[in-house]
Amino acid sequence: MPSYGSYGSPSLNKMENGYGSHSGRTSFSLGRIFGDPFALATISIGSLAWIIAFISSILSAVRPNEKERVPPFAWWTLVYMLFSIVGVAVTVASDSERTYHVAIVGFTAAGIVLSSSAVNALVYSPVAANEAAAAGFILLSMITIVWVFYYGSQPQASHRTFVDSYALHKEHPASRSSRQMSNTYPPQQSSLAPQPQLYTSAQLNGFETSSPVSGFPGGPVGAQDPRGSSMPPRFGGTPQNEATQQTPQEQSIEYPYRAKAIYSYEANPDDANEISFAKHDILEVSDVSGRWWQAKKPNGETGIAPSNYLILL
């Protein structure tokens, strides 16, 4: 029998990649910054604010009167904010925002304290250079507040979903699916990033995970058929008459999550495991990992549904 890793089936790629989360390395590309209006705007404004504060601090430092110069800690604030801006730019360009979002929130939150202290020390100064530096630090404070609010929120948050919908490289309903999932919402193809492909259970030829709890069709390895016969091979095709029957493992699946359909979806007629639903329908979800979720409709019908058409409540 060939080893587990020797199967060249797309279903194994879905099980390893679709249900994982950013396990592979991503390349560094400035196109991710230019393709994301939010990142481009905040990084550009933050860089401009830093330049204003830096040049104004230099003009203030050359004044003969030491009392009219910027305070010494303002220079440390400039260095700290420079590294914070560069750090945000690097994480966006490397598509690692979800990995380092906690670090971004922590560092930018500390930057709010430093830049606000610099503003308090400079904004009331009669020297024009100090007032210009205070204006730069005010812009830096505003940008860091926006970053803390954005990166400190869950990806499913409504404001973050709205902002991410304009990014070209991030996953959203217009670019996740490789086929037209709904007549009312045709997917748009992006020329800047390759489109990930989703496979239906009919295409997976028996490799689709029907139970997110067990990880295998019909339950764990070694499970017995309720009728007393042995279960079919785990990595082979399932009989047609068993495709629509629920095993005890499927019947005992819990659905702790609730999701709302943000788009209508029509199930593939060739795939008996998919379910159709209308916009604004409320579904119960058993697992929220991967691109396809095991869901249950209010009428009791269960099946898999594309996660990019749902939003958790």
Automatic annotation (TrEMBL):
Residues 175-185, 238-252 have a biased composition (Polar residues). It is a multi-pass membrane protein. Pfam families: SH3_1. It comes from Bimuria novae-zelandiae CBS 107.79. CDD domains: SH3_Sho1p. Residues 173-193, 210-252 are annotated as: Disordered. InterPro entries: SH3-like_dom_sf, SH3_domain, Sho1_SH3. Residues 254-313 form the SH3 domain. This is SH3 domain-containing protein. It is found in: Cell membrane. The lineage of its organism: Eukaryota, Fungi, Dikarya, Ascomycota, Pezizomycotina. Forms homooligomers. The chain crosses the membrane at residues 38-61, 73-94, 100-125, 132-152. Belongs to the SHO1 family. One of its GO terms (biological process) is osmosensory signaling pathway via Sho1 osmosensor. Keywords: Cell membrane, Membrane, SH3 domain, Stress response, Transmembrane, Transmembrane helix.
